[in-house]
Amino acid sequence: MCVVVAIGGNALLRRGEPLDAASQRRNAGTAAASIAALAADHQVVLVHGNGPQVGLLALQSVAYEAVAPYPLDILGAETGGMVGYILQQELANRLAGRDVACVLTQVVVDRDDAAFADPTKPIGPVFEKSEAERLAARHGWTVAPDGNGYRRVVPSPAPRHIVEMRTIRRLVADGVVVVCLGGGGIPVTAEADGTLRGVEAVIDKDRAAALLAVEIGADALLLLTDVPGIYLDWGTPRQRLVRSAGGDRLAALGLDRGSMGPKVEACVRFATAAGGLAAIGRLDQPASLLDGSAGTRVLAGSGAIRLRDD
Fold it and tell me: Phi and psi for 114 in degrees, rounded to 5?
């Protein structure tokens, strides 16, 4: 099978951990171990997020006031190279004899996408409310609640076209384990003459992964994160893990626009367009998501919600 696997930036820099390289490499090693096991039996294309990483680089960029802060497309390219390098190396160390390649990937978005006027994508570390408001006032950022704290939020336009698609297809056809679409890809717009221009945004990596999975004809799309799947009554004593459900039923739950909402949307897009398997679950369980023994499987349409303890 050809399997597109997407891992979140929050899975590589977890809440409460220091935002340093050692923490990322340790978590990347955990991810690489399970993904390498999957790659032993399947053709794998790996997509990764960059929310904490790009936000951290943005903070570092504004700290040096002698130079204008770098725009988000440049910071996205930096995180694509940084996280891609770590994942590429960790995978290669576990896949002796297999070629692993990291492709810096541009993704075209519409310049008039409504998302530019409605920032929803959380990036960077979690702050106390007062600190978040201070940073927002100083740098002109938008901040929003995230769990028990606040984070910066930025525009997240829909991905329309993957610029390096032909290159990725060739690598997949040659059996290369490909790491691509870092941070959902570097957001660019296309001029009438084909010229590409970077824009101030961060593309949701799950939406980009769904587009990629459809384009390469993948058999499965696995969205790996730091929780076991989608829950009913999340965060309460009554929370229950969903085993499978139609996307229409899940959309009606009002899932967070900065977290599970885009994941369900991505799964539905792939399941509808390609008829493949789409699932959400833990970073260390891709094989179990594939065989249905873990995680939440998202179906096209309005299939009933089935729980893990049913």
Answer: -60, -20
